[in-house]
Design goal:
2 domains, alpha/beta, about 290 residues, elongated, about 15% strand, 3-stranded mixed beta sheet
Length: about 290
């Protein structure tokens, strides 16, 4: 039965890749305060234009959980403290007035746009200010069959929760996940968890997959293939528990982004699907797939 599901999932992903698919996005709230884009802590207005990218990049590089930003003056006004921290630049246009070269009663002034900037700090850099918690999050509703698979596999690997990133750490053989309630829904949560489960099967103590055991770099062939394996493995496991319809387009979109780096080598999808099937079998039945002469 599992092999039929795996084949079905692979075929559906290939169909989506052939006809294009919706843009992939992280299916959970990507900040500890539930804010998806850089936002002023005081006005609650999101930053615009290039500032969106400047602050998002700064947050990513520094690993801040919050998406709220404040000026030094705002920090002081709110009674906060900040020491030994680096600020980030925010730019804006200001119109400077000057007398028109050829003034008329209707137009006595000219306006010259001038680029200006100010500095802001991430809320995570500030002490003495209460950080808003996620509010009004719906209670997590587990999917029984998916939860059973997750509980069984977690007997051999640690999963901790918190922060805004989902990842598998080979050096400690552990998985980090955002809190369940921050996900768009249970299907998205299990799809992400299964993605990290699939990565973990590459550990040398399990399936010893090069994408996990060998040194690689973001965007190179080994890295990209491992991401294909992980996402296809997640889609296959979702198919086994009957939630593939909620995740298949996201999976295809994610995979398509990696295929573009590999010149649309569709053979790679087939090879990755075989590795993903092996990983899914391992997660579903570790003893039978351990490879110790069984």
């Amino acid at each position: 039965m599992s092999n039929q599901v795996y084949g079905y999932i692979t075929d559906k992903i290939m169909e989506e890749l052939e006809r294009g698919c919706v843009p992939w996005h992280k299916p959970w709230k990507t900040s500890s305060d539930g804010i998806r884009v850089p936002t002023s802590f005081v006005s609650k207005k999101p930053y615009r234009g290039v500032n969106t990218f400047l602050l998002a990049l700064s947050r990513f590089k520094a690993g801040y959980d919050s998406n709220y930003w404040l000026t030094f003056k705002q920090i002081q006004t709110l009674g906060g403290n900040i020491k030994g921290q680096h600020s980030e630049m925010v730019v804006f246009w200001k119109l400077l007035e000057k007398r028109a070269a050829n003034p008329t009663p209707e137009n006595e002034k000219d306006y010259i746009p001038m680029l200006r900037y100010y500095r802001v700090f991430n809320l995570d850099q500030v002490s003495g200010i209460n950080k808003p918690a996620l509010e009004n999050l719906p209670a997590f509703q587990p999917i029984e069959e998916a939860e059973a698979i997750a509980a069984k596999y977690q007997e051999q690997i640690e999963v901790t929760y918190g922060g805004t990133r989902a990842y598998y750490q080979p050096s400690s053989d552990s998985i980090r996940m955002p809190e369940r309630e921050t996900f768009d829904g249970a299907a998205e949560y299990y799809s992400t968890l299964f993605h990290e489960f699939t990565h973990s099967t590459g550990h040398e103590s399990r399936l010893n997959r090069p994408g996990i055991t060998e040194t690689h770099f973001f965007g190179d062939e080994i890295y990209s293939k491992e991401e294909l394996v992980a996402e296809m493995g997640a889609a296959m496991l979702c198919g086994v528990v009957g939630i593939e319809n909620k995740t298949i387009k996201n999976s295809a979109s994610y995979i398509q982004s990696w295929l573009s780096k590999l010149r649309d080598d569709k053979k790679l999808v087939v090879h990755a699907a075989a590795a993903a099937q092996k990983a899914a079998d391992f997660i579903l039945n570790r003893v039978a797939q351990a490879g110790d002469g069984n």
